[in-house]
Amino acid sequence: MSDITTTDYNDFFLDFEQRASGEVKKDEKSEDKKFVLLKVLVILLASALLLEGIIYTFVLPLFNRPAVIYSGLSSVTKEQLAQKLSPLSSSTWSSFNIEKAVTLVSEISCVESVSIDKQFPDKIYIKIKERTPVARSIVSIDGASKSIQIDENGVLFSLQSDAYLGDSSVPLVSGIPLENLKDGMRLPAKYRPLMDQISSIRKLPQKYFAAISEIQVLPKEYGNFELAIYPVSTRARVLTDRSLNEDALKYMMVVLDVVNSIEPDAQEIDLRYGSVSYRRR
User: CB neighbours (10 Å) of residue 3?
Assistant: First the structure.
């Protein structure tokens, strides 16, 4: 008869279940460790990709040449601006000197103002405001005649474009001593009010300067000056004082009609000193 009792069988099965349960727990722990390792690996890879994206998107552009975007250009060209900004051509976005760039661009005579903004991470916006000519004149440089424009503040500047050459609202002004003046310089103070007067007349709906071929400045003693106006419709010139406004031009047109009906060969009409006189050829 066997000596194995029921208790022994119970102990045997209990021990087997415990061993089996232990192995299951070991397998579960092993699976958990693998999952954790996989999770860590995925997080590390994702972090590396994110870090690489940040570096290529935000960091590297800071140390590369920036993209320069211009606006407000009319007669000034991108090539002209790029040439002016050539001392900064090797600058990165982070090292780009806005103050120096403004100074360089402002050296272009037809640029009235410039604003420069840096936009993270690699954009530089340059906005130009160009001067508007209210008059033009002719200067002699190195024996050659050159057309030069004048804005309402009396600043002389050159335009690369011929857009204003055929504009009849921009009158030709002669007689102003410009021999020692260069691009970007201002007219002597006594001639600046004339530019302001011309600017005001140009803003009127009537195109008065379309009927005038030239305005000549006639310097006088003691620093004063008068004007000689050459209308398109007659060969006579009109002498007037330095006050140029709409009423004076209207009065001049009326006098021209009257004088031409009386004396078609009049060479000069004098409106100075509050009276009207004319001289034949």
Answer: 5
How many CB atoms are closer than 10 A to CB 125? 14
d(CA 222, CA 99): 43
Is 124 within 8 Å of 67 (Cβ atoms)?
yes
First to last CA, the chain: 163
Among the listed residues 77, 186, 203, the one whose alpha carbon sits nearest the alpha carbon of residue 134: 203
Token reading at 248: 């004076």
CA 170 – CA 209 distance, rounded (Å): 7
Letter string b/e over residues 190-219, b meaning 16 or more CB atoms within 10 A of that residue's CB: ebbebbebbbebbeeeeebbebbeebbbee
Query: Which pTM value belongs to this model?
Result: 0.73
pLDDT tens by residue, 53-87: 665 565 555 567 888 999 999 888 899 999 999 99
